[in-house]
Amino acid sequence: MLRIFRYLKPYTLSIIAVLILLFAQAMGELALPNYMSDIVNVGIQQGGIENAVPEAIRAEQLEKMYMFMSEDEKTAVQDAYVMLDPSLENYSALIKKYPAAESGAVYVLKSLSSEQIAVLNPVTGKALLIVYSLEQAVNDQQKAAELSAMSGIDLSKIPAGMDVFSVLKQLPPDQIQQMMSAAGTPFAAMDSKMITQAAAAAVKAENTALGVDGQRLQTNYILRIGGLMLLVLLGVIVSVVIISLLSSRTGAGFARDLRRRLFAKVESFSKAEFETFSTASLITRSTNDVTQMQMVVTMMMRMLFFAPIMAVGAIIRAVEKSPSMTWIIGLGVAVLLTMIVVVFSISLPKFRIIQNLVDRLNLVTRESLSGLMVIRAFNTQEFELKRFDKANTDLTKTMLFVNRVMVIVFPFMTLVMSGLSLLIIWVGSHQVAQSNLQVGDMMAFLQYAMQVVFSFLMMSMMFIFLPRAAVSGKRIDDVLRTEPVIKDPPQPKTFDSDSRGLVEFRNVSFRYPNAEENVLCNISFTAKPGETTAIIGGTGSGKSTLVNLIPRFFDVTEGAVYLDGRDVREVTQSDLRDRIGYIPQKGVLFSGTVESNLRYADENATGEDLQKAVEIAQAADFIAEMDGGMNAPISQGGSNVSGGQKQRLSIARALMKNPPIYIFDDALSALDFKTDAALRRALSRKTNRSTILIVTQRVSTIQHAEQIIVLDDGEMVGKGNHQELMKTCDTYREMVASQLTSEEVLR
User: Fold this and answer.
1) Which terminus of the chain has a smaller tally of CB atoms within 10 A, N or C?
2) For helices 607-616 and 643-657, angle between their N-to-C axes, nearest 10 degrees
3) Residue 121 has pLDDT above 90, yes or no
4) Is 556 helix (H, G, I), strand (E, B) or coil?
5) Which helix (H) or strand (E) segment is 21 a member of?
């Protein structure tokens, strides 16, 4: 199948564009759970407060926080804030935002990078949380007891009516340091996110003290993040639309190119190649197999490339959210891979069988439809119905087996996803209770886990389709890689401008491919322009095979066929066949009209040329009787005209070509004697300068030919005109005696 993908080269730019858009789509979809996590964690739980570093803080509150910081931490926090005063550029905007700043000293946060904020978050968060807890505990005995248990600060020892922070300032430095260490112990196991979440209430209280509208702050944050989510989602939708368009166009173009290459290759086949590939199989390969390749290319561009990007990205994001729960995703992936391997191993051998069964069904259908009249004549409809039913049933059973195997994938995936969700919620809820994980992060982890599962689901679907596409790809490649036996020479020669149509057979022998014996042996004769050379013999004597060597439908095994002194193998097939008017025994007409079939030989023919050709071919009368005349419709295969009418239209079509050589391969067999005689008289006037070769079993048809070649079991047993052969060839005399009366022989 990989060899087939080389035909995707013209679509390289589209594939690159799809890969870029798929990456953008994946990044967008991976960002959505993170935004949802922010809305839950920050927008809902933290009231829109993103950091534990307040954007503004009262001077007295900052002094209280300094008590619970080391000297280095205190210096870092001091460098991060500046006193709000009229000298600041945005003073009026800040006063409006923090109305309480008019009546007291307030510090505002400088413009810091996200990295600096991340460093300060645990520092200010811990200090602010302790200060907030102390303030809450002063008037609440339960909170005072909780604070004492958590930090070792016993508020019961502080005299009534005294400010707790004033008392703490009077303590010795070593005792303050001990209290700082004890107060920080509960936060040691918490990461920066958990500290920020815990300190959000304290920051919110400080904002309230400064006159900030907390509800508006929360609403603005949720609307901002929600707006970003909508923009990202819009980008994802646009990417999906463009990806679908490009992948569909690429798949359709790829299928079109494959069909074109297949058709061109099949057109170059000789009869030897058609022995390898049946017509039904070639039709299946050009339709069903190409459709399989189109589908897999489209799905690969939309799913196979996208799934790994999503899987890797989702795993990375999930690890960032909660490394301790990553084992859950690993467990789910292991179960999925096991299921995929099992389904793959069961389904793969069946796909090749399915394609062969489709070939068989097409073959039976084609034979039944083309031989419908014979089937009815022999009253074997029941037999053909059973034959079709067997082919249809075999295909149905095999496809049902594969579908039953594949149908378990989706219920199994649902079970895995449901189990995975329950496990994540169960483990995650315990971590949330232990303050090791935020609720929003647990929800995001759950979504990332589902993205990983869906990515593997997409890959599993591709693993199911790829084997069948691989079979189709190989079948297509087998046709495309088949080299025709009949080839043009590397440096072809050309015919002279005065080419007349002289045909020579020089010691020609022929054997079919893989056959053990020759069907033609040492044939030599010359067919001259202006003369009729007839080839006669019994059934299976090699008559049609002999004339098929002239247009190179087959190549000789020994000897050579010459046309105007050129070996037919030394010129191009196109140049050779331009000089030949070939009329097969079974007239072949194409769907269209009478005129379109005649113009098949010469598109630029005039109406006068058409009329003259049909008159010579004795077809003018029945064409005039047809509804529409020259514009009368011809159905597929010429099924709406008789065998004799087909032959006469085929002869008229060959006459339109006006070539130097005419080959009638038993093309007069369906004509009655009267029409046959009239046609031969008209042909002798029209083609008096051309070389005529007639293959027939009728002695009457070729009795007046200038030269008659008699074949018997592949050997030439006689050559001459009628009178000469009657004297020298026993085989010819036997044929004459069996077909003509004594009076006809003497004529």
Assistant:
1) C
2) 130
3) no
4) coil
5) helix 12-38
Which ranges in the chain are annotated with CATH 1.20.1560.10?
267-480
Q: What gap in Å lies between CA 449 and CA 454, rounded to an integer?
A: 9
d(CA 95, CA 103): 10
Taking the C-alpha atoms of residue 392 and residue 146, their distance in angstroms, rounded to an integer, is: 79
What's the topology of domain 503-746? Rossmann fold (3.40.50)
Instruction: For residues 32 and 226, give the distance between their C-alpha atoms in angstroms, rounded to a whole number.
Output: 10
How far is CA 435 from each of CA 53, 97, 122, 185, rounded to the nearest angstrom? Answer: 20, 33, 15, 14
What does the mean pLDDT of the chain come to? 83
pLDDT of residue 130: 79
Q: How many contiguous H segments (helices) and E segments (strands) does the chain have?
A: 30, 15
Instruction: Tell which phi-psi region holds residue 217, choosing left (phi > 0), alpha (psi between -120 and 50) or beta.
Output: alpha
pTM score of the predicted model:
0.72
- Categorize the per-residue pLDDT at 560 as very low, low, confident or very high, splitting at 50, 70 and 90: very high
CA–CA separation, 255 vs 320, rounded Å? 43
Every domain range in the chain assigned CATH 3.40.50.300: 503-746
Whole-number Å distance between alpha carbons of 447 and 56: 36
C-alpha span between 605 and 614 (Å, rounded): 13
DSSP 225-267: HHHHHHHHHHHHHHHHHHHHHHHHHHHHHHHHHHHHHHHHHHH
Residue 228 has pLDDT above 90, yes or no: yes
Question: What's the CA gap between 563 and 496, in Å, rounded?
Answer: 11
How many angstroms separate the CA atoms of 42 and 194, rounded? 11
Question: What percentage of residues in the chain have a pLDDT greater than 70?
Answer: 91
Of the two residues 230 and 331, the one the predictor is more confident about is 230
Other Cβ atoms within 10 Å of 407 Cβ, number: 11
160 pLDDT tier (thresholds 50, 70, 90): low
- Mean predicted confidence (pLDDT) in 654-676: 81
pLDDT of residue 665: 85
| Alpha-carbon Rg for the chain in angstroms | 46
Question: Residues for the chain: how many in total?
Answer: 747
**Sheet of strand 661-665: strand arrangement:** 566-567, 558-563, 503-510, 520-527, 715-720, 707-712, 532-537, 691-696, 661-665, 580-583
d(CA 255, CA 540) in angstroms, rounded, equals 42
Rounded-to-integer distance, Cα 56 and Cα 68, Å:
19
Residues 653-662 as b/e (b if ≥16 CB within 10 A, e otherwise) read bbbbbbbbbb
In whole angstroms, give the CA distance from residue 570 to residue 578: 15
In three-state secondary structure terms, 669 is: coil
* CATH 1.20.1560.10, applies to 267-480: yes
Instruction: Tell me the per-residue pLDDT of 714-741, one tens digit each, with 9 for 90 and over.
Output: 899 999 988 888 888 888 888 888 876 6
**Phi and psi dihedrals of 378, rounded to 5?**
-95, 5
